[in-house]
Task: structure prediction
Amino acid sequence: MKATDEYLLQFQALNRWFETDMGKMVLEHEREALQQLVEGLFGYYLLELGWLCHMPSYAQASPIRGFYRINPCHDARNQLVAMPEAVPIATDSVDAVVLPHTLDFAADPRQVLREVERILIPEGRVVIVGFNPYSLWGLRRRLPGASQHLPWRGHFISWGRVQDWLSLLGFDIEQTRNLLFRPPWKKAFLQRRFHRLNRLAQRYLAGFAGVYVLVAVKRVSTLTPVGLRWKLRHIAARAPVQPVANCVKAEKNDG
Result:
């Protein structure tokens, strides 16, 4: 089987899982969190870069009117079909980017972040949604045979590692949220009685949530004119300097 065919099968399998009852509930929890977060985003262009063909809409809560969705789906609702590792968008042109589980299933997650850094304007925001490996969801993917199926065969990158990658690219973390403390077993997950447990875990066990959402801002450091400063020092070093004793002697003679 060709690599492109295998990738297409994985892509289709991932979207099928997110169309199941469990997958839909995951997306619904994430949609609620994203709606709240995008309310604080401002600018002209908001870009969603991901793998999901039918991601629930959350952009209506954002003051950014220009919302565009880019993924590999050949769908009439997509403005552009592209891979997240190579986005055909101009450098420094987007105000905010949303990555819904994009890093979890990308062939090269760090390249995705490099593309995000490239297309974001200075002080632009990136919102990242990912599965937490240090949770019951992370434990579920370690069960025998789980790694053969999606979404469990995804990367499940910890938010700490994502933070390190972002820091190297010049981003600062603004805020994080933790979602889904329900166990990832269908019968238990779909029961509504876990609502109170979610609230308690949010307060005391936040680091063990099944999903994290983080917001990071692209910082632009102030450049120090090192070359100019070196040039001034060099000119000063070559300038003729009269000894202090000679200066004092010259003043006495003038008197």
User: Anything to note?
Assistant: The CA atoms of residues 80 and 237 lie 58 Å apart. The chain has one domain: 3-226. The mean pLDDT is 81.
